[in-house]
Amino acid sequence: xxxxxxxxxxxxxxxxxxxxxxxxxxxxxxxxxxxxxxxxxxxxxxxxxxxxxxxxxxxxxxxxxxxxxxxxxxxxxxxxxxxxxxxxxxxxxxxxxxxxxxxxxxxxxxxxxxxxxxxxxxxxxxxxxxxxxxxxxxxxxxxxxxxxxxxxxxxxxxxxxxxxxxxxxxxxxxxxxxxxxxxxxxxxxxxxxxxxxxxxxxxxxxxxxxxxxxxxxxxxxxxxxxxxxxxxxxxxxxxxxxxxxxxxxxxxxxxxxxxxxxxxxxxxxxxxxxxxxxxxxxxxxxxxxxxxxxxxxxxxxxxxxxxxxxxxxxxxxxxxxxxxxxxxxxxxxx
Length: 334
Fold this sequence. Notes:
- By secondary structure, the chain is α/β, with parallel strands linked by helices.
- Helix content is 40%, strand content 16%.
- Helix 2 (30-38) runs antiparallel to helix 11 and helix 3 (51-57) packs across helix 5.
């Protein structure tokens, strides 16, 4: 690794064990990332962004007089997913795909034009449409291609490159062979979800081989554990052994952060604190996405009100909000 790359490797500067908001399509937009950073997440990751889309669409992107990225074709979903606020840093952009040349282009474009803190490569998404296209977790079946992709990205960025993956395609020990290959290819950090592709999200996450990978490499590789983290208490214990010694560099939280973004810093919120959090995220959505942001906010609202008295009726209202005033009205009923 070059001296420039070492200087830019923010992972090594974090206090361990650190906490990361996982990349999740349709959820981890800029508004939610901002909120999670304020509530204790040490690092946030973008939604899954297609390397192919950057390759094909970036020729239409330009900066206006306010230094804002726009598309000559109007609204561009890929460009919107890439945008971020400086307050989100450390911010990592996650790319998915299967073509090394398109990963190389995407890494270069992102590094030169957006300057996030890192680039992550998705090798773990189990969604059927992703895997059927040989993306995401499908790369677990083709480690040679996975290594080529990492090398292509490394050669086209001075930012730290990381990978998010699973224990394996169909057996847990595959990660013990896969991780060394990824490290030799040049990754700085590795996030491991404690299930195989075949598991999808069924059964309990298994952590033994996540710990084993960290034991194999020590300080050579940042290792982040992921899977079934549902409470702040787990965030405080899963990264440490029974004697209190740190055995993972960090932990990544996914689905449990929906409706509970304070999971990064505390176990629970008072009713008044919850109301303030809901309204804050709604304001961020409105500022970043305009009125349409309120429609996108519905899915978050539904999660926030789960467990409240009268939640069934509140959910009916939550899925019909169209304005910030609608959100305020619903919050007043909690």
